[in-house]
Automatic annotation (TrEMBL):
<protein>
    <recommendedName>
        <fullName>Ribose-5-phosphate isomerase A</fullName>
        <ecNumber>5.3.1.6</ecNumber>
    </recommendedName>
</protein>
<dbReference type="GO" id="GO:0004751">
    <property type="term" value="F:ribose-5-phosphate isomerase activity"/>
</dbReference>
<comment type="subunit">
    <text>Homodimer.</text>
</comment>
<dbReference type="GO" id="GO:0006014">
    <property type="term" value="P:D-ribose metabolic process"/>
</dbReference>
<comment type="function">
    <text>Catalyzes the reversible conversion of ribose-5-phosphate to ribulose 5-phosphate.</text>
</comment>
<feature type="binding site">
    <location>
        <position position="124"/>
    </location>
    <ligand>
        <name>substrate</name>
    </ligand>
</feature>
<keyword id="KW-0413">Isomerase</keyword>
<feature type="binding site">
    <location>
        <begin position="84"/>
        <end position="87"/>
    </location>
    <ligand>
        <name>substrate</name>
    </ligand>
</feature>
<dbReference type="GO" id="GO:0009052">
    <property type="term" value="P:pentose-phosphate shunt, non-oxidative branch"/>
</dbReference>
<comment type="similarity">
    <text>Belongs to the ribose 5-phosphate isomerase family.</text>
</comment>
<comment type="pathway">
    <text>Carbohydrate degradation; pentose phosphate pathway; D-ribose 5-phosphate from D-ribulose 5-phosphate (non-oxidative stage): step 1/1.</text>
</comment>
<feature type="binding site">
    <location>
        <begin position="97"/>
        <end position="100"/>
    </location>
    <ligand>
        <name>substrate</name>
    </ligand>
</feature>
<dbReference type="GO" id="GO:0005829">
    <property type="term" value="C:cytosol"/>
</dbReference>
<dbReference type="Pfam" id="PF06026">
    <property type="entry name" value="Rib_5-P_isom_A"/>
</dbReference>
<feature type="active site" description="Proton acceptor">
    <location>
        <position position="106"/>
    </location>
</feature>
<feature type="binding site">
    <location>
        <begin position="29"/>
        <end position="32"/>
    </location>
    <ligand>
        <name>substrate</name>
    </ligand>
</feature>
<dbReference type="InterPro" id="IPR020672">
    <property type="entry name" value="Ribose5P_isomerase_typA_subgr"/>
</dbReference>
Length: 227
């Protein structure tokens, strides 16, 4: 296993220790959350009782394969724990997410969770957010106008492509990958972006994470809690 994968696996598996019997759980998206879903599946096989909701169609399919019982929003008021990855995380546990394009469902599920546990390899931990392009989910209707608003904010938006085609999110929207440079005030940028009418959501997760599990290439982990 490559070093980065070992670090992701270590973080993803360790975070599952925060899940107790009977809990309602949010399942994240991406290559680190993958390991959490696999570990939850393994513990379900050993008798752990949980019910879960996924942040993407991809993770939902993986959960089904692992025989993790799934629930919908009509079946719960809140989730006990959400475990999800991040593209960048700073010392205040502010995040950039959405590298996999699942940011809208990820933010809804993080918001519905009493505890949001972020899993990441050590390279995701940064002194300041902004080197990773900030994903912004926009409606197809009027996207060119929305992109002009993002350009006016110095966001330098790029329409995300996949396999030579425009990338479409699970919600039928586009992603603008933006470069704002170093993000000095994530809270205000998150609010400013969401004030643009064609923006559905953006990948800044401010004051949402409670716990960070960082994984290292040697298989060790470090847990940090929001103060
Ligand atoms: O936000 C996400 C998907 O929308 C992912 O959690 C984020 O991109 C991290 O992915 P990975 O664990 O594969 O590095």
């Amino acid at each position: 296993m490559a070093n980065a994968d070992a670090a992701k696996k270590a973080a993803g598996v360790r975070a599952v220790d925060f899940i107790e019997n009977g809990m309602k759980v949010g399942l994240g998206t991406g290559s680190t959350a993958y390991w959490s879903i696999m570990e939850i599946g393994a513990r379900v096989k050993q008798g752990l009782q949980v019910s879960a909701i996924a942040t993407s169609i991809q993770s939902e399919e993986l959960a089904r394969e692992q025989h993790i019982p799934l629930i919908t929003f009509s079946q719960f008021d809140y989730l006990d724990v959400d475990i999800d990855g991040a593209d960048e995380v700073d010392g205040q546990l502010q995040l950039i997410k959405g590298g996999g394009g699942a940011l809208l469902r990820e933010k809804i599920i993080a918001s519905a969770s009493r505890r949001f546990v972020v899993v990441a390899d050590e390279h995701k931990f940064v002194p300041q957010l902004g080197a990773f392009p900030l994903p912004v989910e926009v409606t197809p209707f009027g996207w060119e106008y929305t992109f002009r608003q993002l350009t006016a904010m110095s966001g330098r938006p790029k329409l995300r492509q996949k396999d030579g085609k425009t990338f479409i999110t699970d919600n039928g929207n586009y992603i603008a990958d933006c470069s704002f440079g170093a993000i000095k005030n994530p809270r205000s940028l998150e609010a400013l972006l969401n004030a643009i009418p064609g923006v559905v959501e953006n990948g800044l997760f401010v004051d949402r994470a409670h716990t960070l599990v960082l994984g290292y290439a040697d298989g060790t982990t470090k847990v940090m809690n929001k103060i």
